[in-house]
Design brief:
The protein contains 6 helices and 5 strands; from the N terminus they run αβββββααααα. The chain has 202 residues and is α+β, with helices and mostly antiparallel strands. It binds zinc ion (ZN). The site of zinc ion has 7 residues, from loops.
Length: 202
């Protein structure tokens, strides 16, 4: 039986068998941010294949054991799956808020920026309720509660106000959120929760 991280190959054609046995292929490595362990890794390229459009598929294996697939061209990496997480919840945050924020982070890394921003709005509303505001109010009421009763210094209000308009759509039209605005949402909510929950625990 193969040991952990020892690769077993399944050559299907004569040329593939020849590549493995006769052509003396050497190990190759590829540097990237691994979604599995969160570190910058110099991982083994386990296999590669040319695609019909002359780009390449790369299959890589990190030391942590998690695989990652790339599509690359002469100009560099075109896609990475799974994408590395850019944001993560703080360890001192209430459990449900942390879990919900991590869902927003996964959604953001998958490129679903509108969905990520909607989850961020939900995190802010749940945070306001956690801090004592009543249930069933509007998103803007909860923003006012946070900047009026929880994080009351003026510079916090300026920052938190940026989140008001992001993904703020009417029922009959969908306000798609750009990558830049989604980044602002994730960042502001993270700073907000860090100040409310992580700073007092430091
Ligand atoms: Zn890894």
């Amino acid at each position: 039986m193969a040991r952990a991280n020892e690769v077993e190959f399944y050559p299907a054609t004569f040329e593939e068998r020849q590549g493995v046995h006769d052509r003396g292929l050497k190990p190759e490595y590829f540097k990237y941010a691994c979604a599995g362990c969160g570190s910058i890794t110099q991982a083994r390229i386990v296999a590669s294949a040319r695609r019909p459009d002359a780009t390449r598929n790369l299959w890589c294996l990190c030391n942590c054991g998690e695989p990652t697939c790339f599509v690359s061209s002469d100009r560099g990496v075109l896609s990475q799956s799974p994408s590395p997480l850019v944001f993560a919840a703080g360890k001192d945050w209430p459990e449900d808020l942390a879990k919900l924020y991590d869902e927003a982070a996964v959604t953001y890394s998958a490129g679903a920026y509108t969905a990520a921003s909607m989850v961020c709005r939900k995190v802010l509303m749940a945070c306001a309720c956690e801090e004592g505001e009543a249930d069933g109010k509007s998103f803007l009421d909860y923003v006012d509660f946070i900047s009026g009763k929880v994080l009351t210094f003026p510079k916090a209000k300026t920052a938190i106000d940026k989140i008001r308009g992001i993904g703020n759509d009417a029922n009959h039209e969908i306000a798609f959120v750009s990558r830049g605005d989604a980044t602002t949402s994730l960042r502001i909510v993270k700073y907000m929760l860090d100040t409310i929950y992580s700073l007092p625990a430091a």
